[in-house]
Amino acid sequence: MPTDAPEQLRQILSSVKTIALVGASEKTHRPSHDVMAYLQNQGYRVIPVNPRLAGQQLLGETVYGNLPELSEPVDMVDLFLAPERTDPVIDQAIDLKIPVVWLQIGVINQEGAARAEAAGLTVVMDHCPKQEIPRLGIAKRA
């Protein structure tokens, strides 16, 4: 069952350092762009993933086409995708052993979450780190 207990969310957001943000957008009015900028401002390294923008720069980071193309390991993958598009990304996260799969508000995939959890990954679903960080009182990283 995906986690939503405050102490577990606090532990996740306090321990992760590098986040792959799948569905990153160059459009400043999109929630994924806003959340990426917020997480960077909080001290996280956020690597954007979007096949349409692969190779371009977004908020100072190179955009990758998919998770297997990443040049470094990440602690968490944050999915800004329609629920029906999350299965391949969840499977990539399982294959790459990314410790945390975070599905944004409204992104519900119970079967994918169950697969990830069965593989030993932690899953957060229907939450936003931009909302959880201030709610949980997590201090900005240096």
TrEMBL record:
<protein>
    <recommendedName>
        <fullName>CoA-binding domain-containing protein</fullName>
    </recommendedName>
</protein>
<feature type="domain" description="CoA-binding">
    <location>
        <begin position="13"/>
        <end position="107"/>
    </location>
</feature>
<dbReference type="InterPro" id="IPR003781">
    <property type="entry name" value="CoA-bd"/>
</dbReference>
<dbReference type="Pfam" id="PF13380">
    <property type="entry name" value="CoA_binding_2"/>
</dbReference>
<dbReference type="InterPro" id="IPR036291">
    <property type="entry name" value="NAD(P)-bd_dom_sf"/>
</dbReference>
